[in-house]
Amino acid sequence: QLIFGAIFTLVVIAALLLFFLTAIAGRVWCGYSCPQTVYTEIFMWFEQRIEGDRQARMRLDAAPWSANKLLRKGGKQLAWWAFALVTGFTFVGYFVPIHTLAAEAAALAFTPWEWFWVLFYSGATYGNAGFLREQMCKYICPYARFQSALIDKDSLIITYDAARGEPRGS
User: How far is 126 from 35, CA to CA, in rounded Å?
Assistant: First the structure.
């Protein structure tokens, strides 16, 4: 029971520290520290390098299937999976000595559990950062849920000011 109390105390202190930092420095966690943000940025970097900027991606999506489109779309998916597999391998490396894991990977001699966890973490990374992206933040992250409770009408936030209007038209 003493261990449970210590863990509970540490979790409460961590939560209060997060609240305090949010009140002082804004969305430091979401913008700079959250792994979801970091991985999404990495996946978007691959996407931009392979398929181009937003306009180029929209043109590519609208274009009929061709060798160029297949190469770009397939190349992006291949890069995403390669990075996700490296991530899964690295996560499992926290629990299995990394030198042993690397030797097993080179020989394709993972144990069934190592295969499961490497592929699980790879799939989670691929799905969260490649497809869910900001949807993870909006609907799944608990921090986003209590973030609105930490601000008031005098808090500085970067958002569209409806009272100012839009000078470029409707």
Answer: 13
